[in-house]
Design brief:
Blueprint lengths: L1 H17 L7 H15 L5 H5 L1 H8 L2 H4 L11 H7 L5 H16 L2 E5 L7 E7 L4 E5 L6 E3 L12 E3 L2 H6 L3
Antiparallel strand pairs: 1-2, 2-3, 2-5, 3-4
Helix pairs in contact: 1-2
Bound molecules: zinc ion.
């Protein structure tokens, strides 16, 4: 029963992405995803509550945060999504939140020193307006100077282009 709901939801998501114009720009794509989530959160069950990142992405102002050149290619996006067949609700939520995150996080050009598998992205510690670098793969967080973050648990939000300017980057 649950599996069926996931499949139905995923089809609905793909249909949304196929709607005319949705893949015309990163901004429109972002808005379409957020719109789809807002209309379907009630089906996510506990996963929507678990996913802080999804919540953050939904509440960002995309005109400030959607980056100029995400790595994701709009012309390939439908192909990419159609190859994914989430069998669980948390996988579906994860795929969507990762997509949003890719659209709003600026990569630093520096490899993660912890897992060496991913490039660190610029984020802000939400309540301290401190610029940090985070690895999306292993969760490593470090200060701008490369020292490991020692501030304990902190909620991070993407650092926008304007934020980076303020920090002289
Ligand atoms: Zn890492």
């Amino acid at each position: 029963m649950k599996k069926k709901l996931v499949a139905v939801l995923w089809d609905s998501f793909i249909e949304e992405v196929k709607s005319p114009g949705v893949l015309d720009s990163y901004l429109i794509y972002y808005l379409a995803i957020v719109n789809w989530i807002t209309n379907n959160t009630r089906y996510f069950g506990d996963n929507s509550i678990k996913s802080k990142r999804l919540e953050i992405c939904i509440n960002l102002d995309p005109t400030l945060y959607v980056i100029d050149e995400p790595e994701l290619s709009l012309s390939m996006e439908l192909d990419r999504l159609e190859r994914i067949k989430p069998s669980k609700m948390d996988t579906l939520v994860m795929v969507i939140e990762d997509t949003l995150w890719d659209l709003v996080t600026i990569k630093s050009g520096k490899d993660c020193p912890n897992c060496t598998d991913d490039e660190l992205r610029y984020v802000l510690a939400k309540n301290e307006s401190k610029l940090l670098l985070e690895c999306d793969t292993c969760g490593w967080i470090e200060y701008e100077n490369g020292c490991k973050w020692d501030g304990g648990y902190t909620q991070v939000i993407p650092a926008s282009k304007n934020d980076l300017l303020q920090f002289g980057i």
